[in-house]
Amino acid sequence: MLGPLPALPCLLLLLSLLGPGSASNDGTVVLTSSGPVRGKHLLAGSSPVTAFLGIPYAKPPVGPLRFKKPVPHKPWRHVLEAASYGNSCPQQMFSGYPGSAMWLPTTPLSEDCLFLNLWVPKPQSPALVPVLVWIHSGGFFIGTASLDIYDGRFLAATESVIVASMNYRLGALGFLSLPPAAPGNAGLWDQRLALRWLQKNAAAFGGDPARMMLFGQSTGGASVAFHLLSPGSRHLFARAALQSGVANAPWASLSQKEARERARALGRLMGCGKGSDSAVVDCLKRKDSEEFVQHDFTITRNKRLVDFPFLPTVDGDFLPDDPRRLLEAGHIHTKPILTGITANEGSMFLMFGAPGFSLGNDSLIGWGGVGGGLRFMVPGLPNLSVQAAALRSPTGTDRSKGHWPLYSTTEQNFFHISKNESRVKGPLPTRHCSFWACLERISRPKGKRWCREGERHQLHSLHQGRRSPELPDEEL
Fold first, then answer.
1. Where are the beta strands (DSSP E) in 96-206?
2. Which domains does the chain have, with CATH numbers?
3. Is 367 helix (H, G, I), strand (E, B) or coil?
4. Cβ–Cβ < 8 Å for 134, 165
5. 264: closest CA among 247, 281, 249?
6. Per-residue confidence band for 331, with pLDDT thresholds at 50, 70 and 90
7. Is 110 exposed, middle or buried (0-12, 13-18, 19+ CB in 10 A)?
8. Contact indicator for 186, 171 with CB cutoff of 8 Å
């Protein structure tokens, strides 16, 4: 029988796991609050990066945990191999049209999908570095942190920062609201739990928990804004960047009434329409996750242009009140904020309103179809402007007062559908972008919190990769 291991070898073994930064001497094993994780070395060009992929931060939200707040994952004692992404959350797969492949998850779809990822630059800095936390987009019903375009290694290597990302529940599984059995906002609670884990463990990876920044685009940007408004999230990050998405956008949240109506409608579609709200939830908990994916989008089909099926809603807990009222009352924590829009992004949504458009084919449309899309996207646009766009003419009454698409500016988007477009001349698109870029504290148009010339604040705005010309050059 072997006797006790000598003290020195045991000590050396311990030090190999708990070296500087709570990592092994080659940086691939890090001791976290959940247990040790082993990453893998990658190259970003010629720069080395260590990736830690597929770290579970919550128990699988299945069975009695479906629709509930996430529960932290149980700690583990073995070294967790974090060399590949975890599962993606259940979602509809939109394929068959050009460019679709880049948005499709390449990992298995499963309710056991609450994983996070980190990319750490090498060599590791002796000082703690900032942590940038990416929240993916997808209308709160599709998307995953494991897409190739979300690979954080290049940002980590070029900027010497740690980049992190997480999956969160989507669609009805993430945002169905029938309280108290299904309190709603489960996907946002997932995000918060991931943020809590990252803040607690940032230093172990060489990151500064006091310099965590959230950033996201579209519904990812709206998610960042919800965390800015939520009292329980504000202490988990120091800065925020929102691209093309805010919490007070008309597509970003639902009223409690609409959220309940959609939940009950889904229940009826899935054979769970009878009884109390709690009975509906109990019935839905017994359904296969694939059934939710099949029926999610049936709830809102053909209602309006940007109408995602299940969304964040006021729950009195994560979101204490309507985002617009919270913003008007100034209930947003003071933090440095970077906000902006993507140039010509409205043209992407313009096509969805064109007659005959389908995601199942190339959907080649003429300028007459563009006119139909304009009428759907901007109901108040004068006919002359629609006709001018259809005729590829820059002479329409494009300076109509206040009639803009939901996402961005007017004429710039209308004339970026094909290579043979006519560019609209005039200052309106640039002025309108600057107007939105000057939005202070993410308020709404005509509100009280707009920037004034010479006013000093901590809002930075970008359009098309440039700072807004409306903002002063001095340090904000």
1. 115-121, 129-135, 162-166
2. 17-253+318-335 (3.40.50.1820), 348-431 (no CATH)
3. helix
4. yes
5. 281
6. confident
7. middle
8. no
